[in-house]
Input
Amino acid sequence: MKQKYNLQPEIEGQFVDLKGERYYKIAHVDQMTPFFISVVSASDHWLFISSTGCLSAGRIRPENALFPYRSVDYIHENAENTGSKSIFRIADAHKVMLWEPFNVHHNGLYEVERHLYKNSIGDKIVFEEINHSLQLKFQYSWNSSEQFGFVRHSELTNLSDSEREIELLDGLQNLLPSGVPLSVQQTSSALVDAYKWNEQFEDSTLALFSLYAKLSDRAEPAESLLVTTVFSLDGDNNQDSQVLLSSTQLNRFRQGAEIQSEPLTKGIRGSYLIHKYIKLAAKQTQEWSIVADIDNNHADVCQLQQQLCDSATLAKTLAQSIASNQQELVKLISGADAWQLTAEENTSVHHYANVLFNNMRGGVFPNGYQLEKDDVVKALVNANQQVMKRHNDFIEALEDSFTHEQLVTRAKASGDEQLVRLSYEYLPLTFGRRHGDPSRPWNHFEIKLKDENGERLFSYQGNWRDIFQNWEAMALSYPGFINSFIAKFVNASTVDGYKPIPYY
Output
């Protein structure tokens, strides 16, 4: 009798332990209407991903995109050609079976379960498909690293009691080179494709995705000197593995045809696809990672080349960088009373998420009430040069580090009401950004946390209404700044009560 599969399994949500962290699992997520998820970072990463697996990601602003920054409907509908792509050919004694995890067009071929996990901290997401017919499980996750960019980690597990021989093609599609203007990316993508140059370093997993030249109609040199870098780390050190730099051979792989090496592709969309053969013993798991970053210069590329000469050390450095980025996120949010423990885990995590996204809008105080002289002086001079010219003695008397209360007290002692106003208005906030995402692409955002020297920037962005809504909640954790919040709001208003709503 033919086995009947459960075509509409029950969707369930629960907290689970996974890889030493707490995650929320949505079981049978493919039975839901596609939805959108934000994966956060303590650094300048932004990553918006659909439950279908398609995503847009980059650094600082939409113009610095690793995958195209398009509206949410486009992202939901383009899992087949943008983001992660995995195809497996599994051999047994009689035939070869083709398995494409997360491909909705293959629904019904096998009995599968698809699950989605996001960690409680909010900086990691895991996609999982279990193929009961083939007795295989595939997982991939997205993480972020301040030093290396975006990390996609993959795991393939043999659930059977016998060895399996598998040929696989796994990686990323529709990677963008550096330097593509957002408007051109969204309206003239075919023109951008024509400028693309994708090349792999010989005897290395490192590949560069760049433009022949900057897109320009002017009769002047327009060199494109920054690149998107992608490399892979593979625990089995398979010498027969290949890297494909386009998706043109996907159908050849599906059909079992021979795959040709692609050390260089021109004028077509860039992909980074690992092709290799593996043997999995019973219950064995094999892992590999693909790491991608944007806007790298010549020095960055040379450093990556050197690090890849010792892949074991690089793997440890990468893992440490991911962990450090998470710890920095925990540190930033902890100052705003993000960690509350109740009898219901849902409530505790929901509170954390509220604080997280509130702080991503209004900013956080990374050093509490402690201020740094250099930044205070720079901010006050930028705010009003004429006032500060009158107070050289005030500036000279400041120590390298002092509290916000001490700043205001000394300003009051000067007898200058304008200096008092400026001192109250100084707010050492960081981590904030304007709200914007592919569901509201008309809102432009920037995540500027450090300057060109890697030093932390203290600034905030957004319209006044949004900023003060978030500061109101922040004031519960930092009541010493309440007067500064009020001063900033009142001083930005006119006598008749009009308050401007420009972007700051």
About this structure: Residues 12-77+87-332 form a domain with the Beta-galactosidase; Chain A, domain 5 fold (CATH 2.70.98.40).
